[in-house]
Every structure is written in structure tokens, then in C-alpha cells.
Amino acid sequence: MKENSNQMPREEGIDHSLSLMREGYLYVLNRRKSFQSDVFETRLLGKKAICMSGKGAAEVFYDNEKFKRKDAAPNRADETLFGKNGVQALDGREHNHRKKMFMSLMSPEGIQSLTDITMKQWETALNKWEHMDQVLLYEEVKEIMCRTACQWAGVPLEEEVVKEMTKHLAAMFESPAAVGPNHWQGRRARNKVESWIGELVDKVRNGEINPPEDTALHRFAWHRDVEGNLLTADTASVEVINILRPIVAIAIFINFTALALHHNPKEKEKLKSGDNMYAQMFVQEVRRFYPFFPFVAALVKKDFIWNGYKFEEGTLSLLDLYGTNHDPEIWENPDLFSPARFADWEGSPFSFIPQGGGDYLMGHRCAGEWVTLEVMKVSLDFLANRMDYEVPDQDLSYSMVSIPSIPHSKVVLKSVKRKG
Hints:
This protein is of the alpha+beta class. It is built from 15 helices and 10 strands. The protein has a 5-stranded mixed beta sheet with strand order 1-2-8-5-3, sandwiched between helices.
């Protein structure tokens, strides 16, 4: 290895964890601008950390020879968002084997099944909304997504527990960055759902229930690891939740979809043609423009030098997702909402990374990205073409500090009616 390296730009101070919490999605972006550098060193949780942003940073961050995921996420994220021993924390052969389990669900038939379920759940919700004085979109869509996720995953869901299940799954992604009661609520929610799904895994293995073979509950219950052993019921439970929780989290993107339609009426008019390509461009721009995940974490696997800067083994490193999706070197006028930018987009796996970058199968890019796109397109069609509604005066602003961010009013709709 080349020994000489440059001094990486460094943020002075003992620890900047509080600054990260105060600045949220803009923490890395602000320092990237002040340092005029795509990479800088700081201190988080009492340890040296490296923050990275941009296409080149994403390319090196998703090089499995340079970074690993095991032990990278803070414990509070494992206790709420990810769970223990899930695919996100695996590396190498073990990760590739587990990732194939997830990708086996993403066949054209599997995605079509999900699309059909999503449409039916929207139809059912719309029937209900027509009789409501007002609809709190975020809360209602979380329930749509919970019902959709459980049906697609083969998880039996009794009507009387739908609201509780929705609340628990949402708490997992609403609480990782929270402190105090909200964080502990997320932990308790994960423990309850893991216990429940774990019991279902045991029932599948005991022959007490028999979900369809092409569902997550069935496939994950019978999945064998690289050594040929069945996953523990606890681990299988975590992985089933890794299907359920992200689908419920699409409610955040759907809320921003409604906001984008409201703020961009000319774009809404273009969607009336039913052009699937334009719908795809619109949801991609929602995913690029609005805040979702702020960054992802990894640990340096072994010493290396990149762009003249030394990365030392074991150093926590954060890749700035939001900043990369708003990088003016990649995107023209990144702070303008413009679906047309995706008309000629080449589809780089490192420049557009709302759900991570790199390769789906061999890398750590989110396995559910196709799921997100198709669910969003169905939801967009309902919001733009299949229903009329009023958007009364409300606080539609959203925080760049709160993680995850959603419009403060959660988007209130009134006078909801089915079109035609």
C-alpha cells in the first residue's frame, strides 16, 4: 500500500453526536460545503468517524473489500430499526447467501402479487375514507401498508390487531433517532413483534400453519444458512420483520408523494395520461428530493487510501444518502422538484441512493427497492387519478432535523371521493 497520505479535513472538538442530532439530514452536507471536501473526519459516540458523500464516495463505500457492516450500526438501531443478526449486519459469503433469500421474493410474479394486494387495500381504504370527515393520510397509509405487507409476506393478521401491529411496526422506524420514551417504545414494539413472528415461524415448522410457499414467512422459516442449518426462530423472525417494517415505512414516501402533488399541480396534470414512464419518473423524484434515510454506516475492513486520504481499519464511516441525492455535481438544480430529470437518467447505482447504493444481489443495496417503486406507483395513481379530495390549510412543512421526517400535519385530506 502506498504509505504517504494527505491529512483528511477534520472537525475539531471532543464529540459531535449532539450536532448530528441537531442538524439531522444536513449534518454531513453542511460540513461538506464548509470543508469543500467529499470526505471529512469527526468524532461520534466518543470515537473517530469518517463522513463521506457523493458518487465516488458511494462507489468506495460499497466496495466489500474495503468496508464491512457487522457491528457498524449503533446498538440503539439494532434494538429498534434492524434487529439482531439480520441481513444488514452480515458480510461476505454469509451476506450473499442471506440476500438471495430476500431477492427470491422479488420475481416478476412476486412483485405483481404485491401490486395487486396494494391496489385492493387502497380500494378498501378509499371506501372508508369517503365516509370520514377528514383523513390523516400518514396514519391511514401506514395501516394500508401494514395490511399489504402482512398479506404479501404470508403473515396472518386478525382484524382486531391491525392497528396495534401497524403501531408496532411503525415504532421501529420512527424511534431509532429518538431519545427517552419514544426510543423505548420502539424497543418494546420490536420485542413484541419479534416474539409474535417467532411463534409463527415455530408453527410453520410444526405444521400448525401453512402459508403459501412463495411468501416470506414460509421461505424464511425453512431457509438454511451457509452451513445447512435452519435459521433460529429469532433470526427468521427478524428477517420476516425486515420485509414487513420497510413496506410500512413506504408510508413516509407516500406522504411526500401527496405533498409533491399538492405543491406541483402542473406535474399532477401530466400524470392524468396514465403514462407509466412518467409515473416512474415522478416517484423517483419523490425519492430523490425528500428526506428518507439520512445516511448508512459501515466499518473500515482494512487500511486503505482513497483520494489521498487514509482509512484505518475499524473506523466508523457514514455515507450521506440525502446529500448525495442533492449533490449539484450529480443533479442539476438539485433543490428543485423536477421528475423530468429522470427522463434520460442512466441509472447509476452510486449517484441515486435513497435506499443505499451498489449491487442488489452481491452488495448492501436495499432488496426492497423494487417493492418501494411499485407500491409508490400504485399509491400515486390513487392520489392523482382515482380520487378527489381537498387539502385544507395546515402545516405542510417538514423538519430536516427529525429522523424520519414527515410533514408536520401528516397531510390532512377532506371531502375524499372516488373519481368516476
